[in-house]
Structures
1.
Amino acid sequence: MRFAFYLFMFFSWGLLIFTSSFWSLSYWGMAVLIPITLIGFYDIFQTKHALLRNYPVVGHGRWIMEDIRPFIRQYFFESETDGTPVNRMFRSVIYQRAKGEMDSLPYGTKLDTQNVGYEWVSHSLSAVHHDESKSVPRVTVGGPDCLQPYKASVFNISAMSFGSLSANAIRALNKGAKLGNFYHNTGEGSVSPYHLEHGGDLVWQIGTGYFGCRDTHGNFDPDAFKLVMKNDTIKMVEIKLSQGAKPGHGGILPADKNTPEIARIRLVKAGTRVDSPPGHSAFSNPLEMMSFIQQLRDLSDGKPIGFKLCIGQKSEFVAICKAMVQTGIKPDFITVDGGEGGTGAAPLEYSNSVGMPLREALVYVCDILKGFDLKKDIRVIASGKAFTGFHVVRNLAVGADICNSARGMMMALGCVQSLVCNTNHCPTGVATQDKKLAKGLVVEDKSQRVARYHKETVDATLDIASSAGLTDFCTINRGHIYRRISQTEIKRYDEIYPSLVAGCLLTDDYPEQFRKEMRESSVDCFMPKKYVLESSSGLKTKTNKESENNAETA
């Protein structure tokens, strides 16, 4: 291929020189040929890319095709049910509802109802009418110790930080939340001025970096926390233990993204790399975690305090519940995130293969809370791939009280799933800090879209509940959802995921399937007992036999 390039250069320049004396267009030929020549020789002599050394100039086509491949596939070849992480069918309905366009489906479903995993809601012959003119019911968040309960919408904006999203995206989301009367989770990047600009209800998420409430050493600062909590738009506080995008992996704020503005908001030094540790420094075990929850409740004058997690080791959540029972301190809500990932950029292994998927995690959390007789005082929030009313209903049926959506809300803003969120080149100005790109996102227009999408999704949720004969969406349960198990067998959710009897884990006669987690869990540490390290003669891991013996005597 190099020889072909040299041959092309020889004949092209020869022809150009020959025709230059009598053909005026030859000067335009030089304008094209000079750059090609320079690029070609650069490709041949550079040492980084073998492809370019062997195929000068034309080898660049490979990178061009890589860049445009997602767009070609999305707009020319995808069917309605293709496309990941969000298929075209769901993207389309989000756009339609956000714009206020017709969202009805002609000619029947495009899903294969014989596929294993197909799910549906069982309607009733006693269906009731859903009156859209009536006020939408709210979900009260706040347990016995909460002094300022919050009445939340059933569908809200999930955690997305300023820094990950542009200032205009944050403004539009928050104004949409204000217009639609639902909450907006700040993400762990703290409360920015853009979150406060339009007065939408906020849930302040506090991660392991304690951004916005940290001291110079990165530890939790009660005074800084109390100062931010004076803002009345902050309705709840969420402690982030882990997230679905990268559970067990601390976040990294690169030095070039740590602008003076972001540093001021997060209380860090500008222009430096900031690593969020994988775990919290304010507590190291479930008992200390309960104390931290009570501390935040006191500092916030009794506002709802909760935590977010992606389920990993099952016994760790059991340990947290044991600590709630022992101390009498309970969070007001628990947000369950699915291991299938979210808007946050993450390593491939974490997005694909770390953390429990949402459905199984939601079932587990709700069952354990019920088993410890805690569910009645704690609201469960489902976070992960909720785009339509059916997604909300399915989560509520499992046991959730509220749903959060991040990607759905991003698409309502205008996100086109270009999959460049981690490059700072988001073409719609949503996930970027490039002010030129962010300027393309018009807050007035996009906030209306967010509010419309929320309203249409909530209406669809209530409509499905009405079709099931229910006058209150809170009464949806596992018996209302069916799933195809095989080509010839279907089961209800309550058959696949049978519920526990309230308080059964408080007795010695608990179900056999929870025996391992109950034995492995301890209020003194998060990790299962079989993984606890001893330091008698240096650190070493206990053997399984030692763990079993300890578990039997515990």
2.
Amino acid sequence: MKVFAAQIDEGKKGKDGEPSVGPVYRNLLSKDDFPPPDVNMRTTWDIIKVSAVKYSENKMLGRREIIDGKLGPYVWKTYKEVYTEVLYIGSALRASGAEPGSCVGIYGANCVQWIIAMQACSAHSIVCVPLYDTLGQGAVNFILEHAEIDTVFVQDKKVKELLNSDSASSGRLKTIVCFTSVPKEDQSKIGQIGIKSYSWNEFLQMGKQKPVDIVPPQPDSICTIMYTSGTSGDPKGVILNHESITMTIRGLDLFMELFEDKMTTDDVYLSFLPLAHILDRMIEEYFFRKGASVGYYHGDLNALTEDLMELKPTFFAGVPRVFERVHEGVVKALDELRPLRRKIFDQLYKHKLNYLNLGYKHREASPLADLLAFRKVKAKLGGRIRLITSGGAPLSSEVEEFLRVTSCAFVTQGYGLTESCGLSTITYPDEMSMAGTVGVPQTYTELRLEEVAEMGYDPLGNPPRGEICLRGKTIFAGYHKNPELTNEVIKDGWFHTGSLAEYICCIYHIFPF
């Protein structure tokens, strides 16, 4: 039996109506004690500050230019260039009235300006609050009011929605900074309401002309408030401190060092998952930590393949639906093959799968099958993919197996919530026996199951089943302005996630809920 996690205690039966709890598990890296934190990475500001010096000339943020009405190649800003703009934007924020501890909103699709605005907030201990409208009608207005936001960085085409919000009409909203420039059709309304508006370049120039010393955050300073869907209808604001985010990044760093393929400055990530969600935010922070490159999709998910072909990323992260589409596309292409070619593909698939199940790594399982058939699947993802990560929901076993066999890359999936910085458990990228599970606790997180009596789930049963409870420095500080809900989900130091899981040989399978 392979052991992938360290058991810390035996668990216990509940007394006097208390639920039973299962053993506490940790990552093997933390079996005896948690690894010490990195003294040079105590806040997210430390990440960009250190990398700007260490990797000053490396490509950091990329976007596609439009040339003669058509998408051109990626154009890059170096770590040094981004850092300089961050300082200017941070100074402009302070000059426009934003103070350390206040909340500033960012509203729009992933782009270079999104990250620069986010990092500028960190430089001055300002709380970055992503805004997005997928939480339902009125969500943007609710967040603006609930987080008391009066300054927003906004994508040009989203300005109209801001101006139609109650926050604009009530005078709450005072300053907007467009990612490029203020749309002409919105300028008159902005003037009528009395909101100050700036193009990106205008705001940059203001910061350049009015420099303000940074106010670096502390580890326990609030880094961001991320709003997620609430059971009562209103979104709930998840408070994440700088320490929670940096400890998660540190844990991922240590975990990835265990494996053959190390993350390097040559790695490239295509960012298309919303930056307003925790998964993409954490991946990008990790890439900045490594001095690697992040390129942004051009805004049309239906044409994502064009960005993949142009950027040729080495790392690809998505939600199950993205990988289901990849699977469906390949299956459809196979159905159109002549019977003999389809039969050859199926035989190569079975051959490689057999060797993967025997414990061979993906490169060693069947190089011939990769050459004859599977490199064509890899080409659909840009041709250079080394690591694929799925998150957000359970990935079906069928699709995960397909990716592990045909992508010519390592495949991993995990489980996490915004409240746990998006990463609570993770599978080993080169361990086929973990397929169909979400892996083991991440480096700085402890995990146990708790009884759910009404469903018959017993964490001490066979197999152990129950609600996932998490503990550690990677867990959120609470819900913004909602102590009742905070106390409801955090009990005795454990965060009760509401997710159900089954424990299998030191790895976890998450049930749909």
3.
Amino acid sequence: MKLPEILSGPLVRRVEPSQINLWLATSKTFKLEAEILIVEEDEDTFQYTSFKTKTSVESVKLGANLYIHLLTIYPVDDKFPVNQLLAYNIFFIGQKKKSDLASFDLLSTSNPHAIVYPGLEYPTFFINDQEETELLYGSCRKPHSSGYDALAGADAALEEKYSNLQKRPSSLFLVGDQIYADDVAHPLSLFIYKLGRALMGKKEPLHHLDSRLMKEPFRTARKQINGRQFMMKSFAKFTSTNASNHLIEFGEYAAMYLLTFGPELWDLAEKHGVFRPFHEVIKSDNFYFYFTEEQEKEYEKEKNKQEAIYQEQLKNVYTFKQNLFRVRRLLANTPTYMIFDDHDITDDWNLTIDWKKDVRNSPLGRHVIANGLAAYWAFQGLGNEPEMFDSSFKQTITTHLTSLSVTNKSYERWIEMLWEFNDWQFVAPTSPIALFLDTRTMRAYDPEPKPTKVGAIIEENIRPPQLINAHGFKKAKQALIKSGWKKHSPLTIISATPLYGIELIETFLHNYIYPLRIVGLSVQTMLDFEAWKYNSKGVHAFHNFLFDIDPSVCYILSGDVHYASSVTSDITNQAGEQIKIYQFTSSPLHNESFHGIWGTLMKKITKLNAAKRKQTIHRYCDSNWKLKVTDSTNRCPEKFYWREEINYQIMNNGAMVKTDNNVGQLHLGDQSVQNALLTYYGVHHHVTYYPKLSLFNKKK
């Protein structure tokens, strides 16, 4: 497989006046340099002035044909200017020649894969330090979902206003599920397996982890479409119901990132049959069926069902591919910060303490989680805050990936390091400063049982987790202090899961669906009972954290739930102290999922919510850490930890939530904030607005 020299990127990552970080993936080693230029607009043209810099490049070899590079560019004489349009170029220095981004035809607008906007010669960005700012945020991008990719719409919108720094987004926050490792499209799976091997140069000896993988049908099924569900459930102890093509090897995770970030490898994908029809896949014996042809009746039913799935996914993947040039251009022109959620690794990741123990005790499950985390570090984490990862961390990863052995001491060090690492959360130097929380590896699991009643059946149930434990909040506070953030300053907090969901939805699930576990239904893994409110101690800990750090204004940005919403909350503790939260949720970027029985149910609930205009809810946390809603019969007692008034905002189209693919556009002003949702329809984009909200600012 002949790979292009540039596999993905460039991406603009962490930027601040003292440094600029650019990320790039290549199939061969390069000596790299970068140039920063100041851009001035003169009527209808742009003038470029070179800025004196020095470049430090960290190049990491992850496979025989896979290198990632993080270019950190420092100003020589002064800091980089803020609120000023800046441009960049990257130079590739080989043994015989020096080339740049133009050499790869990335700076010519005649090339559909170009990363520049019309009228500009280079990709651009700016470093914002104003209180008034625009930013983009969202989560959940799955290639084979229906509809158009909202990130492509963000690029189309940016194309119209790239030179207007008052309206141009200064940052993009990707708040979880940037890839779907568990839910991989049938048409993509075989190419991902092949591409993964091509990137790494060899395969992982997985049979040393579980000898059953060498036996039939597993030996063959692992290489076929639809062949991995049983292995992931029974051998790896995963709980995803869509694991039939689950990523396993590190190269497969890398391949998925490369295919999701941009269009560079899609011509190669097409050559290798990604868009071939179902009957050709069957003819070449590349599809795994549960029933054999001898079981004629069952086999035909299964084949017809799988053909319908395949054809639908084929159509959706093709639509996704068509707009990836826009996604690549957006990422090349917007400082981007990313944090994981479960699908970046696997569905239900660390859902319960039993889930975590079962997977860790499975050699295959433990291995796949480590591969997912290593890939997250390489493709997402490294660019967020490079100083977080020391030389020992990087050396441990590269030593293992060089050998890919699973029987030596370096492998055990690699596994242990990634399972125990707890510094994934970080602070982004945006305006205002943004704290990205790790709600996956810093969880607390309550040991005490929860009594549950369904009809005449009474049983003790497990409790949903606290999404961040005490140590996690302590580290978050330390990260804020280290960043220079001060109390009584504005703060943005990124929590992949919203602190406030839609109350009617969450209450219905909690009171009527979750108890069905005791009659044998796996509702915990079917519906992801991971909202903050499902563990009231966790909500209490979050509120205590806010009162402790005491921001003047607190914004929370979230995703995960596959609907968008806008919520405010006024919280008062027993001491009379107050915090006001503005929470904005954008989900999904590309994974419309309100369909089937659960989707229909939730849509009806949200319509009921909006019809009743139940926009305001009062609740409190009692002395037993239970969350209770107040009404005419249930009033807040004298003894409570805190009480709050939650207000759900209605969009200008009369809806409370949006379930179409969308990306959040947030305008932060010194006196007000306004959330909007951008959707894309292939030829045009549309913006739906929530009301402008006046800010409650504490005096500094």
4.
Amino acid sequence: MSSTTIDHAPGHDHDDHAHDHGHPTGWRRWLFATNHKDIGTMYLIFSFTMLLEGGLLALLLRTELFEPGIQFFRPELFNQFTTMHGLIMVFGAIMPAFVGFANWMIPLQIGASDMAFARMNNFSFWLLPVAAILLTTSFFVPGGATAAGWTLYAPLSVQMGPGMDFAIFAVHIMGASSIMGAINIIVTVLNMRAPGMTLMKMPLFCWTWLITAYLLIAVMPVLAGAITMVLTDRHFGTSFFNAAGGGDPVMYQHVFWFFGHPEVYIMILPAFGIVSAIVPTFARKRLFGYASMVYATASIAILSFIVWAHHMFTTGMPVTGQLFFMYATMLIAVPTGVKIFNWVATMWRGSMTFETPMLFAIGFIFVFSMGGFTGLILAVAPIDIQVQDTYYVVAHFHYVLVAGSLFALFGGTYYWLPKWTGVMYDEKLGKIHFWSSLLSFNLTFFPMHFLGLAGMPRRYADYAAQFTDFHQIATIGAFWFGLSQLLFLYVVLKAYSGKGAPAPSNPWGAEDGGLEWTLPSPAPYHSFETPPVVQ
């Protein structure tokens, strides 16, 4: 990124409370919130709540799997837990968390006074608790929640009880929320940058979110189409996925994964943006290859549309199709590799310090790379056919999504928490949280590679005795990982309650960030009422 100097236009008031006049207080401030910081905070609180719910379901799964045999939950309930864990984590925890970061940071980084559509921003948030209530209450309807897996594959999803309809409506509502959020981000980034901030001067977090927002607008309607077809098959006599009526259940997989694979990048591109903000700051160097990072992000987004059927190598597709999707999937590793090398090159010979955000960023690079390599292995069709639907796949995508998305979210939280709260968080507890999370994560998911290679299928409530040891190790790791996140909650709440050293406006000495470091900490309620000028 070209180095930027900021001139505040005359009359710009830096005083923390100068602009705090007349905004609503109490419950009205949150219910009718139009301020991007308040809405960002609500997204983050909501996503962490859903993370705890989804995590609780995961711990119930691991409790059942501690020993072979059916211990606590009948297989139908186990499958409901599996399905809801996936839906809640993807649509309730990871995606809203990144939207919370976007709401908080994009206006601050580009010098905008707020998001473009403040009321739509409020509406897109308040759809989410409605969807979360629908998902959670589906456990209590006759037949329980949907047990078709988070992918909601037909024909199973066509045969489920009313809990399936709850899930369909919840996903529809969350999709509408995502589309509104994406429109808001695109318009804000394209129209509300400070004078002098060209697109190629924007922080990479803004770039990754701009590209992610286009992905969301492209693929959320596809998901809506897939689940609407399931809904009409269930209740209105259509036969989209019923072979007896001329339909094709494999068509559901094609439509779903045309959404599902770009969705994976929707959950990781903003993480790349956060890591690209943290690494240069703590390496005390400019980000290596800024332009190539932008182009790599765009390449990943474009290529993500032509790899969907690598999830479907076992559906009996012709070998030509297998080869196409195999090579396309390998190709997408190239721009991803560009990013990894650029981060490493940024750290190379830098004056590195290892505060908690940097630890999470380095942990992200290390463990995400492992997830990337298992992804390359799964791209090879003959290998994929062997390990399809085993714990090897579970290990792969948790390395990408937990150590990828989640670690980046933790790193970003520690990085910007002083800007949000005005105080420095407890560094010692932050480091304990990092090491505890890293060790317990690997203890949980690394053994799953061996389970999968040995043939342990995923989504099974029972298993053969030879898998016991690895399952027990994974369960112990899962409980350790879950408890570690309570420490994170404590650190954040402690900072929000104002306990800690006051944070300066640029606590990390970031030379190459966005405009957020020119504001006092905590960021005032109304920031950049007079646009700064970037030179």
